[in-house]
Amino acid sequence: MIRTLHRWPGLLALALVTILSLSGAALSVFPAVERITAPQVETGLTVATLAERIQVVYPGVEQIRRSPSGRITAYWFDQGAPGAAVIDPATGAGVASADPNQALRWLTNFHRSLFLGDGGRIAMAAGAAAMLVLSLSGAMLVVRRAGGWRHWFASLRGPFTGRLHVEIARIAVIGLVLSSTTALWMTASTFDLLPDGGVLPADPTEVSGEIGFALDQMATLLQTPVAELRELSFPYPGDATDVFTLKTDRGTGYLDQGTGALVAWADLTGWERVSETIYMLHTGQGAAMLGLVLGMMALGVPAMGVTGVLIWLAGRRGRPRIRGNQPAGRAETIILVGSEGGSTWGFAATLHAALTAAGQGVHVGPMSGFAPERYARAERIIVLAATYGDGAAPASAKGLLDRMNASAPAPDIPMALLGFGDRSFPSYCAFAKAVAAAAQAKGWAELMPLDTIDRQSPQDFARWGRALGEVLGISLELSHQPVSPRTETLTLVSRRNYGAEMQAGAAILRFALPRATPWQRLTGTGFARFQAGDLIGVLPQGSPMPRLYSLASGRRDGFVEIVVRKHPGGLASGQLTALEPGDTVRAFLRRNPGFHAGRGLTPLILIGAGTGIGPLAGFIRGNARHRPVHLFFGMRHADSDFFYGEEMPGWQAEGRLTRLVTAVSRGARRSYVQDALRADAAQVARLICDGARVMVCGGRDMATGVSDALAEILAPAGLTPAVLKAEGRYVEDVY
Prior knowledge:
Number of helices: 23
Strand content: 15-25%
CATH class of the largest domain: Alpha Beta
Largest sheet: 8 strands, antiparallel
């Protein structure tokens, strides 16, 4: 609901809110310029003294005004001709023209009404209402993505476009809420939808009938500082019944021109003060710096509009059309999908097509539409559940858990759960696990145990599909072909071979850095911006499914580098390890912000085995600030599998690598990297207790062994890998 409330007003009112924001940002500059250029009043100057100075220079003065910026303007008649000027309060003389700024007038009319009168005012009010809805719903979405209000400024993960959208939003949202709310108030006031609230003093019934009392002798004017003045109007020349009208920040009063006495006064009402405060907050008049800040925040609206449209388009592309989708009441297999960005729907479409080809009647729908009473012919329910943010339900799964918990006992329909997530996140597949726990609590029959898919791996999905086929008694091959980003050609410039003696061919492959287009440099897409720990997807010949490899280099290194081991029957690894300098591959970049070293100086404990050394070596190579880095590296054979062994001494000498500990699993004294951790338990525990961050890269079995070892090492200190993950101090990139 919140996402819908955010999406459609944004798409429908994009042009209008962009006009409002850009014109408002331009208008915010004028109060600041006026404040800087206007001659300012000396401290302690009274209205009496100011009026006397101006009257000496302009004997025919009829009105003195002070704007919220402090600018003094006088209006007079000289031999029947009107005149006006910006006044220097120190002399009472004019220093600049008082003619209205035409650019300001044009922008104001454009901002308020698009030059269309009342119809334009209503349209711009609708734009302000849309901006308010967008701001509030966007704030709720940011909170949901971040995992709560206390994580409002937490680091973000995900595609660049989405991160940029949220980064701008969480900075600008307060200003946008303030601007849109005050705009709606002012519009309502314009159309007399709010009470006026103003009270003028009663007209004086008796005056002295005299004229010519000296301005610098009037007590009220002597007691009123110029800083409180808004307007002083002089009586009509020769009319002894007319009075001075004084308007200040406190109220309005009338002064007898013959005696200088205050004959009537009315304080500003509470409603007037509220209205004036709202006007100040919206325009910046009287608060120039605030106006500039709000104007800068308003500039974020066009950027959020563009990124929002891109996010919407990406979501539409990520949700494919499912042909032959059966009604829920007639389907034998119900597939429920929980997806945030839309990618999980692609897996659902692949599963739907395979089951349909096997003769099944299949219905695919969102998890939010969960309704067991509608599944009259269902023999099984398969749930594909992604996790959003800090373990929250994705957009298409809202309300599922509530309905499951509130429902009657589970029907006799077995359920299979498949979670989609990223192992580098602390809350890996947390929502899928929550659904599994709720289903178990309700006594739902289990078709298959809960399984997970890491980083949308087609290989993991195919493995799970074969297991599902065995349960169903059918042959089920799930060949998922995700829509890959646009690829670029990488040319191999060098390679270093390892493992040849052990018939386990491996290599460090270095590719030339592709030339980035101006658009890529601006948006950070393609290979224009990347770090060690990010991923490249390689499209092998003969397969549409990309293989992902962790990068051992960053953009600043000037090359693209990966570590690859040839696997038996491995299509991509076989082709990559066969490359020679000058050969090319097609590849794309995928961000992996959850596995970046970061810019801090807290110590790093890097743990890897085999080709998992790739990103860890990249972190060490890029450690120009000499951050303490402790590397635990496991290999099969020291003679043939010591990746980056040639560079390690140099990195240590340069201060990029503090300490290196190796473990050899097939040597005379067999040891794994988790054994090396246990052997160095005291120092590992001390480093972690002092704030060190742990980064693990390699195979899943290795990662499990490392986690178990660290659990033992940290137990006396009351810490666990789970606690470290929740704190962001334990991250994994496993395969």
